[in-house]
Amino acid sequence: MQSNEINREARYQRWIGLLLTAQTLILIVASLNRLTDFSSGHVAESQFLRWRDFNHLMVFPPLTVLVAIGFRQVLLRVGGKQRGAVDLLFIIAVYFLGAGYGVHELANYLSSLAKSREELDPVFREVIRYNDDDFSHWVFFAAFIALNIVMLLWQAANPFQTRLSLIDKTICVVNALVLSAAIFVNLSGGELGFDLVALLLLALIALFFWVKDRKQPLNIYYLVGLWPGLIATAVVKML
After folding, report:
1. Distance between CA atoms of 20 and 28, rounded to whole angstroms?
2. Which residues touch 186 (CB under 8 Å, ≥6 apart)?
3. Structural domain boundaries in the chain
4. Cα-based torsion angle of the residue sequence 172, 175, 179, 182 in order, rounded to the nearest 10 degrees
5. In sequence order, what are the beta bridge partners of 50?
6. H or E element, residue 199
7. Pairwise CA distance, residues 234 & 48, whole Å
8. Residue 1 has what pLDDT?
9. Which of 15, 111, 108, 32 is nearest to 70 (CA)?
10. Helix and strand element counts for the chain (H, E)
């Protein structure tokens, strides 16, 4: 490759690292929003939602989608190959991501209110629980898997020809380890369910893409971001 082409790819590889860092920051802030009390107050006097639910409904999903679009734009500059079917899958995944969040955040809030109201009809309680713990999870994780497959397909269609520099690989791996730690904390501390199935399926898909091309940044990110957390969870659960 010519030197100007190598410099061009290096610039775009750095952008991938910056987008991964932005994604990590969203993950960290979203986790703090969920696990701490700083956002436990109500949005309005009507108490229609807590800030915790509002942020997960109206703030973090759009930011996640914007970062995903950023990946697409950078990768298109690398290879210039658009895939209509992949972009269509992205649109469908975004819709179901919003639907999953929309059902879950409201149902989760209603579930917290229902716990202190023993007089509520058991059927109504079960409707809330089912939407909170089952239906919304299925919709969300289906969208989660699809959205991340889209990222890998964008990368496969527009691969980098040069390997990552040590700095860019370090940025990629550090961000991936944060994701892996988050997976371990969430899975090891509770009951395993559809979330484990979804993450394991995505991990196998990520392994397939990594075996096909080991130098692509997103392939490295997903491999390191998924497998250590899943393996560590398996070890802890077996002890």
Report:
1. 12
2. 195
3. 3-238
4. 160
5. 42
6. helix 194-212
7. 39
8. 62
9. 15
10. 9, 0
The tens digit of pLDDT for each residue in 161-173 reads 999 999 999 999 9
234 vs 239: CA distance, rounded Å = 9
Whether the CA torsion 35, 19, 221, 99 is positive or negative: it is positive
CB 217 within 8 Å of CB 171: no
- What's the confidence (pLDDT) of residue 34? 87
Average pLDDT over residues 48-54: 93
Closest CA to 212 of 159, 172, 149: 159
10 Å CB burial of residue 157 (0-12, 13-18, 19+) is middle
Name the region of 80 (left: φ>0; alpha: ψ -120 to 50; beta: rest).
left
83/154 Cα distance (integer angstroms) = 8
Contact 75, 159 (CB under 8 A): no
For residue 18, give the amino acid letter: L
DSSP characters for 55-74? HHHHTHHHHHHHHHHHHHHH
- 218 within 8 A of 158, measured Cβ to Cβ: no
- Which residue from 114, 117, 111 is spatially nearest to 137, judged by alpha carbons? 111
Residue 155 above 80 pLDDT?
A: yes
* Residues in CB range of 108: below 8 A, 6 or more apart: 53, 132
Helix (H) or strand (E) holding 52: helix 51-58
Q: Which two tokens stand for residue 34?
A: 């969920």
